[in-house]
Sequence to fold (604 residues):
Amino acid sequence: VDEGAVVAVVPTTVIEGMRPGTSGLRKKVEVWMGENYVENFIQSLIDTAVDANGGKMLDTIVVAGDGRYYNNEAIQTIARLLAANGIKNIWIPQSGIMSTPAVSAVIRRRTSDGTGNDGDGVAQGGIVLTASHNPGGPGEDFGIKYNEGLGQPAGEEFTEALYEKTLKLSEYKTLDNSEDIDLDAPAGTEYQLTPTTTVTIIDPYRNYLDALKSCFDFERLKEFGAREGFSMVFDGMHGAGGPFAKRVLSEELGLPPSSLLRCDPLSDFGGCHPDPNLTYASELVKRMGLLPDGGADPSLDDVSTVPALGAANDGDGDRNLIAGAGFFVTPSDSMALICDNWESIPQFASKGGLNGVARSMPSSAALDVVAEARGIPCFVTPTGWKFFGNLMSSKESFDGKDYGPFLCGEESFGTGSDHVREKDGLWAVLAWMSILSKANEGVADGEALVGVKDIVTNHWAKYGRHFYCRYDYEGVDSDDANQVMDTIREKFVDGDIASSGSDIKLVDAIEFSYTDPVDGSQTSKQGLILSFQLPSGDPARVVFRLSGTGSAGATIRMYLEQYEKDPSKHDASAPVALKDLAEEALKLVQMEEMTGRNAPTVIT
Fold:
């Protein structure tokens, strides 16, 4: 019991620039450490949540982070504000660290005794301290996002209302003379911050583990993991997903500790960029017998010496990278493969299959092709998991059509389902283990196992291959980045499509907009799409979009995709196959002339 704490009302002044992006507000950590920055944002968030709750103060809130620099200090500050505002129950995971999908699971499942099934959860929201896949540490990024009562990221209506409140805020409430909470106390420990507010240290794993066990057959996966010829390596990138991987892959499924790489959370992610792509997961990529462009390493003589499955998480555990021995699986292909192999996943098979799938617009159309063949409704949304959240909760929130079981994902290494309302890196790993397990049911002990490459190449032979990669131009001057987008808009979308004389012909240009089929809301200016026709007659497209997940400058993302139905051409490396398309698009939009960049920062 904190007997010395008193509620204080503290005058403050408006701080500009607090408009959340697609996944919360992200700034350099030193900005967050500035006077009243956290306090202003959280007080505005509380006031917005109260308005959304019909004017009533919320009863129970989860507060957790990905363990990055300033995580614990911010948790202490936030707990004091929540208590001073009258929130009764504050749940904080032991150590203060929890993956983003695990937070969603707690909101959806946890009751007052710590247990509960999906939909039983009593928490009305979650404050998540993360900048996701962005670097952490002094001079790097910090962020805060809010998840609403179904475990989903706050929608645009909520975040815009929050932003408006930050522009009018004149005071906040906090506790003076309040002692710090011991975040390392055993699960179940309670702290009485005020006569009406209790902080409970909760088990980080329990509800999330229950969610995963509702999706997969753990006994079958454990048996498959012990088979001769199967091994895997998982790279936690020193983020929040690492301890969860240890709990699931090692303690539950029996994989050896040597399967886990960088699974200890560090406040600066060990100096690495915790983004699970071919560039930043370089050690995993090398171990899987791959080159930095995703192609097989030609110096690898014996593929049997390489793990059968490789995977990685990002800083907050919601993204994933999937690879087989000498074979990289693009996120777009991964979604399509999971869709086509839904019978391998008990979550889907037990309910007769998928009732809906969705992808972000920049992701490739590989998912669309499978969904059409399988007769599954397929949606193309703007980038941002909140758009998937509406579809997943169509019946739950709007008494609309039930699209569950539901599969969704983004090209930016995010995959998930309706077991939570966030993308979930570890879920994707278990989905691939399940696909491999099913594919090897008829393979006798001692015989070579069907591998990731076999599964994907067979899929391409059936459906065709969508060659795909993304060029990121990071830290571009904001004015230059906007000029690139304005030029594309004026010259191609609003102008006439003129031939450049190239064999790769520009045939259309549009700006993507979206009308939500669930609530009717409209979202505009979500990316510029240039459609091409290849000399073969097959379609191709290039998408240009400004990213909303950085903390400084602008990132121009160029997404390249072309379809190839000829199996004899499927073995090419994607960057090589897409080189001519990339050169034509960059020439048309004058990227180098307007940005001074003659090459992207990262190709994934």
Q: What stands out?
A: The longest helix spans residues 37-52. The longest strand covers residues 465-476. The chain is about 30% helix and 25% strand.
